[in-house]
Amino acid sequence: xxxxxxADTMSTMATNGGRRPRRxxxxxxxxxxxxxxxxxxxxxxxxxxxxDLTASALRIWVDRARADRTGGKTGLTTAERDELAxxxxxxxxxxxxxxxxxxxxxxxxxxxx
Length: 113
Fold this sequence. Notes:
Layout: H1 27-38, H2 44-51, H3 55-69, H4 78-111
């Protein structure tokens, strides 16, 4: 059961409004947890209880693993999610740069009058 060892937890927060503190898991742990649902036919709820996870987090991991296995037919693959995140970052930066250029153009247009 060493595979299911949790990564470092964020214990710096004393309380989180009565909620469970945010925990981080390795990619290997997430893949193995999803494999229990997809390959061994266990339910999301049963695996979540067994591994002390929230069912919603495990369901996301399972959906992502299923999308990766089907080549994107059931959702975005990991590569597609990574590319989408990269493109959104790039789009945000380009939008900010365009706004700066608009303001600079307006400023210099006023100066030349």
